[in-house]
């Protein structure tokens, strides 16, 4: 209830809803958002994040939406970036022990490597979970199964593209320009998250610039949790070798024979 009220309050200060979607950015300033002012600003009507080089940040930082939390939702965002990589955090949590504006949880990665672009990466958690071109099932024992494969969606991230995240229960879908990149069923109850914060990443390391606009959020009905016993893993599925978080950006997960 509080989440819905906060969303409604912020939406009334912006633009009318469109097909159930509410804008989260007014195109003028960072009202409703919280991040390091040395990194984040508004330029040319876009949320803009910039770093100057490897020595600037000791850890990844985030611009956090303070309008509430997201649970079941569809998010559409237009993003372009150059240098390093960025991402959209969702159902995430703050980690003040790591430093201010530190976030952990599900991320729709925005990455120059096509297999990693719009994949599911878990910041400060399970690392690479499901790459572009994969349908993955994580079973209750934390084993990851490659349930399906499709063509990798390839785009130039230096140009504007629309990223979509659909989260309903333990079923997650990412898209680029309307094309599905990943389909994930997460049955690992101890590790998954069903509700949390929304944020945008600025990555430590090489200098980078990210610009973000047209941030549209639609709240979906509660529920939708899929029962593992009623959603069997395909008989031809293969186990994916789990990659440590430090492996982000180093290539495609390998399926065991």
Predict the CATH topology.
Jelly Rolls
Shape call: globular
For the secondary structure, the number of strands is 18
Structural class: mainly beta
The major sheet is characterized as: 11 strands, mixed
Number of helices: 1
Identify the CATH homologous superfamily. Exo-inulinase, domain 1
What do these coordinates show?
With 257 residues, the chain is mostly beta strands. The protein has a single domain, classed as Jelly Rolls, CATH 2.60.120.560. Helices cover 4% and strands 42% of the residues. It is built from one helix and 18 strands. The chain has one helix at 2-12, and strands at 22-23, 33-34, 40-43, 46-51, 61-65, 73-82, 86-94, 103-110, 120-123, 127-130, 134-138, 144-149, 161-168, 171-176, 179-186, 197-202, 208-219, 238-240. The strands form two sheets. Strands 1, 3, 4, 6, 11, 12, 13, 14, 15, 17 and 18 form an eleven-stranded mixed sheet that branches. A seven-stranded antiparallel sheet has the order 2-5-16-7-8-9-10, with no helix packed on it. Strand 13 (161-168) and strand 14 (171-176) form a beta hairpin.
SSE layout and pairings?
Blueprint: H1 2-12, E1 22-23, E2 33-34, E3 40-43, E4 46-51, E5 61-65, E6 73-82, E7 86-94, E8 103-110, E9 120-123, E10 127-130, E11 134-138, E12 144-149, E13 161-168, E14 171-176, E15 179-186, E16 197-202, E17 208-219, E18 238-240
Parallel strand pairs: 11-15
Antiparallel strand pairs: 1-17, 2-5, 3-4, 4-17, 5-16, 6-13, 6-17, 7-8, 7-16, 8-9, 9-10, 11-12, 12-18, 13-14, 14-15
């Amino acid at each position: 209830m509080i989440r819905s009220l906060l969303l409604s309050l912020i939406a009334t200060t912006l633009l009318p809803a469109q097909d159930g979607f509410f804008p989260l950015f007014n195109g003028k300033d960072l009202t409703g958002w919280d991040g390091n002012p040395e990194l984040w600003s508004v330029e040319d009507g876009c949320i803009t994040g910039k770093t100057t080089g490897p020595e600037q940040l000791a850890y990844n930082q985030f611009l956090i939406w303070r309008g509430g939390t997201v649970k079941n939702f569809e998010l559409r965002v237009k993003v372009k970036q150059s240098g390093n990589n960025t991402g959209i955090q969702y159902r995430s949590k703050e980690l003040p022990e790591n430093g201010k504006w530190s976030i952990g949880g599900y991320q729709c990665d925005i990455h120059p490597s096509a297999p990693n672009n719009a994949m599911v990466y878990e910041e400060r958690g399970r690392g690479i979970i499901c790459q572009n071109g994969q349908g993955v099932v994580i079973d209750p024992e934390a084993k990851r199964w490659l349930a399906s494969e499709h063509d990798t969606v390839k785009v130039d991230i230096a140009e504007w593209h629309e990223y979509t995240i659909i989260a309903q229960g333990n079923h997650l879908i990412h898209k680029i320009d309307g094309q599905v990149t990943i389909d994930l069923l997460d049955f690992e109850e101890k590790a998954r998250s069903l509700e949390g914060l929304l944020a945008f990443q600025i990555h430590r390391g090489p200098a980078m610039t990210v610009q973000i606009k047209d941030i549209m959020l639609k709240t979906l009905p509660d529920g939708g949790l899929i029962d593992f016993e009623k959603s069997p893993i395909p008989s031809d599925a293969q186990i994916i070798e789990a990659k440590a978080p430090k492996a982000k950006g180093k290539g495609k997960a390998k399926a065991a024979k």
